[in-house]
């Protein structure tokens, strides 16, 4: 069985634990001890292959401890989470992302930028466009999520796993990975399912920044994936 480590990073209070618990257990925990750093296991099935995910929900990102460095070193994919009502939390991700790239010694990692708390209407300070533009700079995927409404929660985890698989497949095929799919210049996130997969159990608005134009650069046809959250 394949096993991947996913690391969830971001400032305190952005909803890392709520997103993780919502994905793993399907429940919304209103208050979660902010100091708890724990790992969770969850299986998903992609193309009839069961994948075992170990998800590390981090806490207190201020100091990168030796333990944290170890986790990041063994992490295959990263969710960088901010909250749409807190511009500082998006800013903070710049530093966090740099740390990840430094520790991994790789500028082309499977990363999903996650703008959480999309359900907040009154107190929202960042638009989807803010996330789309940041993801374009970083050449990574982007979703707005709500752990509260379970909107796009599965999608962020599935997307990062798909990035990992794609990377492994290109490695096996011996071709260059190149950069990750890019954001279109007009900044429009897609609102339909990603071209690479169909979800059995996933709903919600898809704000992946990947585009078909990015896919067109590759002469190879992308495989349709079937994915189930187990
Ligand atoms: N409105 C709203 N609040 C959320 C959402 N996700 C988390 N929260 C709240 O944000 C606070 C911090 O969440 P938590 O997951 O503990 O943040 P962490 O420090 O990043 O792990 C909690 O009080 C949650 O109830 C969300 O999607 N929408
Ligand atoms: Mg937490």
Automatic annotation (TrEMBL):
GO biological process: axial cellular bud site selection; bipolar cellular bud site selection; cytogamy; establishment of protein localization; maintenance of protein location in cell; positive regulation of Rho protein signal transduction; regulation of establishment of cell polarity; small GTPase-mediated signal transduction
Leading EC class: hydrolase
Pfam families, alphabetized: Ras (PF00071)
MF GO annotations: G protein activity; GTP binding
Annotated EC: 3.6.5.2
Ranges of Basic and acidic residues composition bias in the record: 205-215
Residue ranges with Basic residues bias: 217-230
Protein name: small monomeric GTPase
Keywords tagged on the record: Cell membrane, GTP-binding, Hydrolase, Membrane, Nucleotide-binding
Keyword Cell membrane: yes
Location of the region described as Disordered in the Swiss-Prot/TrEMBL record: 169-230
Secretion signal, residue range per the UniProt entry: none
């Amino acid at each position: 069985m394949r096993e991947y480590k996913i690391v969830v990073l971001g400032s305190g209070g952005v909803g890392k634990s709520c997103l993780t618990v919502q994905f793993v257990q399907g429940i919304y925990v209103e208050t979660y001890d902010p100091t708890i750093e724990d790992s969770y296991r969850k299986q998903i099935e992609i193309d009839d292959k069961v994948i075992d995910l170990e998800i590390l929900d981090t806490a207190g990102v201020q100091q990168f401890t030796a333990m944290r460095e170890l986790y990041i070193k063994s992490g295959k994919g990263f969710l960088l989470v901010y909250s749409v009502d807190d511009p500082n939390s998006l800013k903070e991700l710049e530093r966090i992302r740099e740390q990840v790239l430094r520790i991994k010694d790789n500028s082309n990692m499977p990363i999903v930028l996650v703008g959480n708390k999309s359900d907040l209407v009154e107190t929202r300070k960042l638009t989807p466009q803010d996330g789309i533009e940041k993801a374009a700079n970083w050449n990574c995927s982007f979703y707005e999520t709500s752990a509260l409404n379970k909107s796009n929660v599965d999608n962020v985890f599935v997307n990062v796993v798909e990035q990992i698989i794609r990377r492994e497949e290109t490695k096996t095929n011996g071709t260059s990975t190149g950069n990750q799919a890019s954001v279109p210049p007009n900044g429009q996130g897609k609102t339909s399912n990603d071209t690479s997969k169909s979800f059995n159990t996933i709903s919600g608005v898809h704000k992946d920044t990947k585009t078909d134009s990015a896919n067109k650069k590759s002469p190879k046809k992308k495989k349709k994936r079937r994915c189930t959250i187990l």
